[in-house]
Each structure stands twice: as C-alpha cells, then as structure tokens.
Amino acid sequence: MWLPLQAGMGEGSMYPTMQALLLKLIEQLNSSVFMLVAILAVVLILVYKSGSMMTVFSHHQKRLEKFDGLNDKLVRVETKVDLIYQNTNPNRLVAAASPIAITASGQEIARTIGAAEIFKKYAGQLAAVVDKASPQNAYDIQVAAMSAAKEKMMALLDANEINTVKAEAFAKGLLAEDIMGIFGVLLRDHILKAKGIPVADVDKHAQS
Known about the structure:
The chain has 208 residues and is mainly α.
C-alpha cells in the first residue's frame, strides 16, 4: 500500500514515507519474531556489558596483585618492629639477633606453660599458614613463622591454654601476645628441621 508523502514533501507522491514502511513492516511481523529480536538485543547488551565487566575485573586484579606485594613488605616491617620491641624490652622472651632465639626468660616461661606440648597440637595448622606465604629461604620462613604465631596462635588455643598463657603473662608483667613469640621460634625450627635447612641459614638471607 502506497501512502502520500507527509506535508511538505508533495501531495500525491508515489514514494512511501519511512514511517509508513516501518509501520507496514511491523504489521507483517508476528509476536514470535518480535520476541526473537528482543532476545537478540538483550544478548548483545549482555555481551557488551560482560566485556566491560571483564575489563574492570582485570584492572582491579592487577591492583590486588600490587597490594599482595605491599602486604608482604608490611609483614616484614611489622616483624622487624616487633623484634626491636622485644630487643629493648628488659623482659624480652626472644632476642632479635639473627637468627632469632628464645631468651633465658623465654625458656623459663616456655617450661612453665608447657609451650612445647601446646605447640605440638597446632604445629600442622601453623605450618600450613607459613607454607601459604610461599617463603623462599630460611629468613622468609622465620618472618612467616613469627607472623603466623603472633596472628594465629591465640585463636587456636583452647580455654585452658589461653588462661595459662594469660596468667603467666600477668605474673611476668607481659602481654599475652609477647609469649606468642616463643611459639614463633618453635614453629620456625619445626619447619626448618622438616625441610632439612640449618637454622644458621637464616642469617644468610637476613638482608634480602
């Protein structure tokens, strides 16, 4: 069916207007075709959106990888600061020499609380934390072990063990977290022994 042009384009013209053609086309299409076209449009939009989302995700993933590297550096700094604190504390339990060692006071507390027996219960879980940090050498193992003991050990202890640690810390004028350094040294020695690495190797990589 041919329709005259709209006003201004000349009456009686045999050329159909674009609007008329579109209306005619729509009349000829059934609802199924419309649904197909609509679904296709939605799929195209989703594909475009997913591409944009993947680009954003990739960008954020790169940023997270940078933060992972920064986190490793922060752990090292935190460990060094903790060792400085221990070295200046007259009641220090671990000495900040390389490699780190349990002091005479630390040995006494370790015997009092039964540190060796407590450590055996949680050695596997703590070693897994260190392994997750992917240490590359003996020094890295020491850093990761001290960090794991400080951050994870208290949460692993049962009520009786926590009370024992806190009572001893109170009696010696220390924080319960200070005693965790003892477990850090025990953990380091445990992992190095399992890997056949001498404790003395810690000093070889202390400046890395």
